[in-house]
Amino acid sequence: MFPIEPIKIDVASENALIVYFAGATLNRKNQQVSMFVHLLEQANSPWLLDVIPAYHSVLITFDILQTDYFAVKARIIELVKALKDGQTKQIFANQETNIVELPVCYGLSEDNDLQRIADHNQITVEQVIQFHQQNSYRVYCLGFSPGFAFLGETDAKIATPRLTTPRKQVPKGAVAIADRQTAVYPNVSPGGWNIVGVCPLALFVPERASPSPFKVGDTVRFKEISEHKYYQLLEANR
To answer: What is the mean pLDDT of residues 56-71?
Structure first.
Protein backbone atom coordinates (compact mmCIF):
# COMPACT_ATOMS: atom_id res chain seq x y z
CA MET A 1 0.00 0.00 0.00
CA PHE A 2 1.30 3.44 -0.89
CA PRO A 3 2.06 6.10 1.72
CA ILE A 4 0.05 9.28 2.06
CA GLU A 5 1.85 11.99 0.09
CA PRO A 6 0.69 15.57 0.74
CA ILE A 7 2.52 17.73 -1.78
CA LYS A 8 1.39 21.18 -0.74
CA ILE A 9 -0.41 22.89 2.15
CA ASP A 10 -1.84 26.34 1.42
CA VAL A 11 -3.75 28.98 3.33
CA ALA A 12 -7.43 28.96 2.33
CA SER A 13 -8.74 31.63 4.74
CA GLU A 14 -8.09 33.02 8.22
CA ASN A 15 -9.34 29.75 9.74
CA ALA A 16 -8.81 27.19 6.98
CA LEU A 17 -6.09 25.50 5.00
CA ILE A 18 -6.09 23.17 2.05
CA VAL A 19 -3.94 20.06 1.62
CA TYR A 20 -3.13 18.74 -1.87
CA PHE A 21 -2.06 15.17 -2.66
CA ALA A 22 0.21 13.61 -5.27
CA GLY A 23 -0.29 10.41 -7.22
CA ALA A 24 0.08 8.91 -10.65
CA THR A 25 -3.66 8.78 -11.26
CA LEU A 26 -6.72 10.70 -10.10
CA ASN A 27 -7.98 7.53 -8.41
CA ARG A 28 -4.78 7.22 -6.36
CA LYS A 29 -4.90 10.86 -5.33
CA ASN A 30 -8.50 10.47 -4.22
CA GLN A 31 -7.70 7.30 -2.26
CA GLN A 32 -5.13 9.35 -0.35
CA VAL A 33 -7.80 11.98 0.28
CA SER A 34 -10.06 9.33 1.82
CA MET A 35 -7.29 7.92 3.99
CA PHE A 36 -6.22 11.37 5.15
CA VAL A 37 -9.79 12.28 6.13
CA HIS A 38 -10.02 9.03 8.08
CA LEU A 39 -6.73 9.87 9.80
CA LEU A 40 -7.97 13.33 10.79
CA GLU A 41 -11.23 11.96 12.15
CA GLN A 42 -9.38 9.36 14.21
CA ALA A 43 -7.11 12.06 15.67
CA ASN A 44 -10.24 13.74 17.12
CA SER A 45 -8.55 17.14 17.46
CA PRO A 46 -10.64 19.64 19.48
CA TRP A 47 -9.74 22.52 17.13
CA LEU A 48 -11.10 20.73 14.05
CA LEU A 49 -14.38 22.30 12.84
CA ASP A 50 -14.89 20.81 9.40
CA VAL A 51 -13.22 18.62 6.76
CA ILE A 52 -14.26 18.86 3.11
CA PRO A 53 -12.70 16.32 0.73
CA ALA A 54 -12.41 16.99 -3.02
CA TYR A 55 -10.80 15.25 -6.01
CA HIS A 56 -7.19 15.56 -4.82
CA SER A 57 -7.36 17.94 -1.89
CA VAL A 58 -8.90 18.40 1.55
CA LEU A 59 -10.12 21.69 3.04
CA ILE A 60 -9.65 21.84 6.81
CA THR A 61 -11.45 24.45 8.89
CA PHE A 62 -10.18 25.05 12.41
CA ASP A 63 -11.15 27.03 15.52
CA ILE A 64 -8.91 30.11 15.64
CA LEU A 65 -9.63 30.52 19.35
CA GLN A 66 -7.75 27.26 19.92
CA THR A 67 -5.03 27.17 17.29
CA ASP A 68 -3.62 28.81 14.16
CA TYR A 69 -2.49 27.95 10.64
CA PHE A 70 1.10 27.12 11.60
CA ALA A 71 0.11 24.77 14.42
CA VAL A 72 -2.44 22.95 12.26
CA LYS A 73 0.05 22.61 9.40
CA ALA A 74 2.65 21.20 11.80
CA ARG A 75 0.08 18.75 13.21
CA ILE A 76 -0.84 17.54 9.72
CA ILE A 77 2.79 16.89 8.82
CA GLU A 78 3.29 15.15 12.15
CA LEU A 79 0.27 12.88 11.62
CA VAL A 80 1.37 11.84 8.14
CA LYS A 81 5.02 11.30 9.09
CA ALA A 82 4.00 9.13 12.03
CA LEU A 83 2.38 6.65 9.70
CA LYS A 84 4.24 3.48 8.86
CA ASP A 85 3.71 1.85 5.50
CA GLY A 86 1.66 -0.95 7.04
CA GLN A 87 -0.63 1.54 8.77
CA THR A 88 -1.88 3.03 5.51
CA LYS A 89 -2.84 -0.49 4.49
CA GLN A 90 -4.74 -0.92 7.75
CA ILE A 91 -6.50 2.45 7.35
CA PHE A 92 -7.49 1.49 3.82
CA ALA A 93 -8.81 -1.88 5.02
CA ASN A 94 -10.82 -0.27 7.84
CA GLN A 95 -12.60 2.19 5.61
CA GLU A 96 -16.17 1.24 4.90
CA THR A 97 -17.00 1.62 1.22
CA ASN A 98 -20.49 1.02 -0.10
CA ILE A 99 -21.44 -0.22 -3.52
CA VAL A 100 -24.46 1.72 -4.76
CA GLU A 101 -26.33 0.46 -7.82
CA LEU A 102 -28.42 3.06 -9.63
CA PRO A 103 -31.11 2.13 -12.18
CA VAL A 104 -31.09 4.23 -15.33
CA CYS A 105 -33.60 4.51 -18.14
CA TYR A 106 -31.31 5.63 -20.95
CA GLY A 107 -32.72 8.10 -23.46
CA LEU A 108 -35.97 8.71 -21.60
CA SER A 109 -35.40 12.40 -21.05
CA GLU A 110 -36.80 14.17 -24.13
CA ASP A 111 -33.85 16.55 -24.15
CA ASN A 112 -31.04 13.98 -23.92
CA ASP A 113 -27.57 14.13 -25.50
CA LEU A 114 -26.98 10.49 -26.41
CA GLN A 115 -26.67 11.27 -30.11
CA ARG A 116 -24.30 14.19 -29.40
CA ILE A 117 -22.02 11.93 -27.35
CA ALA A 118 -22.16 9.25 -30.04
CA ASP A 119 -21.32 11.74 -32.79
CA HIS A 120 -18.51 13.31 -30.79
CA ASN A 121 -16.86 9.92 -30.23
CA GLN A 122 -17.82 8.40 -33.59
CA ILE A 123 -19.67 5.48 -32.03
CA THR A 124 -23.34 4.46 -31.85
CA VAL A 125 -25.89 5.43 -29.20
CA GLU A 126 -26.05 1.77 -28.16
CA GLN A 127 -22.28 1.80 -27.57
CA VAL A 128 -22.58 4.97 -25.47
CA ILE A 129 -25.07 3.17 -23.22
CA GLN A 130 -22.93 0.04 -23.11
CA PHE A 131 -19.74 1.91 -22.18
CA HIS A 132 -21.52 4.02 -19.55
CA GLN A 133 -22.87 1.08 -17.56
CA GLN A 134 -19.91 -1.26 -17.94
CA ASN A 135 -17.66 0.75 -15.55
CA SER A 136 -17.73 1.05 -11.78
CA TYR A 137 -17.33 4.64 -10.61
CA ARG A 138 -15.63 6.08 -7.55
CA VAL A 139 -17.35 8.91 -5.66
CA TYR A 140 -14.59 11.52 -5.84
CA CYS A 141 -16.42 14.29 -4.02
CA LEU A 142 -19.82 15.80 -3.25
CA GLY A 143 -20.81 19.33 -4.19
CA PHE A 144 -22.33 21.70 -6.77
CA SER A 145 -25.76 21.04 -5.21
CA PRO A 146 -26.91 18.94 -2.21
CA GLY A 147 -26.41 15.25 -2.96
CA PHE A 148 -24.58 15.79 -6.26
CA ALA A 149 -21.79 13.18 -6.44
CA PHE A 150 -18.92 13.60 -8.89
CA LEU A 151 -18.20 10.10 -10.23
CA GLY A 152 -15.31 8.89 -12.34
CA GLU A 153 -13.96 7.95 -14.58
CA THR A 154 -15.98 6.97 -17.62
CA ASP A 155 -14.50 4.99 -20.47
CA ALA A 156 -12.47 7.39 -22.63
CA LYS A 157 -14.59 6.28 -25.60
CA ILE A 158 -17.57 8.30 -24.28
CA ALA A 159 -15.70 11.31 -22.85
CA THR A 160 -17.53 14.43 -24.06
CA PRO A 161 -17.06 18.11 -23.15
CA ARG A 162 -19.75 20.10 -21.39
CA LEU A 163 -22.41 21.85 -23.43
CA THR A 164 -21.35 25.20 -24.81
CA THR A 165 -24.54 26.70 -23.39
CA PRO A 166 -25.78 25.06 -20.17
CA ARG A 167 -29.45 24.20 -19.79
CA LYS A 168 -31.38 26.51 -17.52
CA GLN A 169 -33.24 23.54 -16.09
CA VAL A 170 -32.00 19.96 -15.89
CA PRO A 171 -34.65 17.48 -14.70
CA LYS A 172 -34.40 15.78 -11.34
CA GLY A 173 -32.71 12.39 -11.69
CA ALA A 174 -30.94 13.23 -14.97
CA VAL A 175 -27.85 11.05 -15.47
CA ALA A 176 -25.15 12.93 -17.31
CA ILE A 177 -21.55 12.98 -18.56
CA ALA A 178 -18.95 15.76 -18.66
CA ASP A 179 -15.52 14.87 -20.00
CA ARG A 180 -14.74 11.62 -18.11
CA GLN A 181 -17.04 12.36 -15.18
CA THR A 182 -20.58 11.18 -14.71
CA ALA A 183 -23.27 12.14 -12.17
CA VAL A 184 -26.95 12.19 -11.32
CA TYR A 185 -28.70 15.52 -10.73
CA PRO A 186 -30.50 14.99 -7.37
CA ASN A 187 -32.85 17.89 -8.00
CA VAL A 188 -33.91 20.26 -10.76
CA SER A 189 -31.12 22.74 -11.41
CA PRO A 190 -29.19 24.48 -14.17
CA GLY A 191 -26.46 22.31 -15.68
CA GLY A 192 -24.10 21.88 -18.62
CA TRP A 193 -23.47 18.14 -18.58
CA ASN A 194 -24.60 15.81 -21.38
CA ILE A 195 -27.76 13.93 -20.38
CA VAL A 196 -27.88 10.20 -21.14
CA GLY A 197 -30.92 9.09 -19.14
CA VAL A 198 -32.85 9.40 -15.89
CA CYS A 199 -32.69 7.64 -12.53
CA PRO A 200 -35.95 7.17 -10.56
CA LEU A 201 -34.38 7.09 -7.08
CA ALA A 202 -34.42 10.04 -4.66
CA LEU A 203 -30.75 10.86 -4.12
CA PHE A 204 -31.08 13.68 -1.62
CA VAL A 205 -33.66 13.53 1.17
CA PRO A 206 -32.81 15.97 4.00
CA GLU A 207 -35.25 14.27 6.38
CA ARG A 208 -33.25 11.03 6.32
CA ALA A 209 -30.47 10.35 8.83
CA SER A 210 -28.15 10.02 5.82
CA PRO A 211 -29.63 12.45 3.24
CA SER A 212 -27.46 11.05 0.44
CA PRO A 213 -26.66 7.38 -0.30
CA PHE A 214 -23.09 8.35 -1.23
CA LYS A 215 -19.92 9.28 0.57
CA VAL A 216 -16.47 9.91 -0.84
CA GLY A 217 -14.77 6.64 -1.74
CA ASP A 218 -17.97 4.68 -2.39
CA THR A 219 -18.48 2.78 -5.64
CA VAL A 220 -21.42 3.47 -7.96
CA ARG A 221 -22.67 1.24 -10.75
CA PHE A 222 -25.40 2.00 -13.28
CA LYS A 223 -27.89 -0.60 -14.51
CA GLU A 224 -30.18 -0.09 -17.47
CA ILE A 225 -33.94 -0.43 -16.85
CA SER A 226 -36.99 -0.17 -19.10
CA GLU A 227 -39.31 2.84 -19.26
CA HIS A 228 -42.02 0.77 -17.56
CA LYS A 229 -39.68 -0.15 -14.68
CA TYR A 230 -38.57 3.49 -14.41
CA TYR A 231 -42.11 4.69 -13.76
CA GLN A 232 -42.72 1.83 -11.32
CA LEU A 233 -39.66 2.79 -9.27
CA LEU A 234 -40.45 6.50 -9.58
CA GLU A 235 -43.90 5.93 -8.09
CA ALA A 236 -42.49 3.70 -5.33
CA ASN A 237 -39.97 6.39 -4.35
CA ARG A 238 -42.44 9.28 -4.08
So the answer is: 95
- Quote the CA–CA distance of 167 and 34 in Å, as a whole number: 33
Residues 6 or more apart whose CB falls under 8 angstroms from that of 75 comprise: 43, 45
Task: Record the pTM.
Answer: 0.86
- Tell me if 18 sits within 8 A of 9, measured CB to CB: yes
Q: How many CB atoms lie within 10 A of CB 230?
A: 20
**CA-angle at 53, arms to 51 and 57, nearest 5°:** 110
pLDDT in tens, 66-101: 999 999 999 888 877 766 555 666 666 666 678 999
Please tell me the distance from the alpha carbon of residue 8 to that of residue 39, in angstroms, as a whole number: 17
Q: What is the DSSP letter of 158?
A: G
**CA pair distance 7, 77, nearest whole angstrom:** 11
Distance CA 149, CA 187 (A): 12
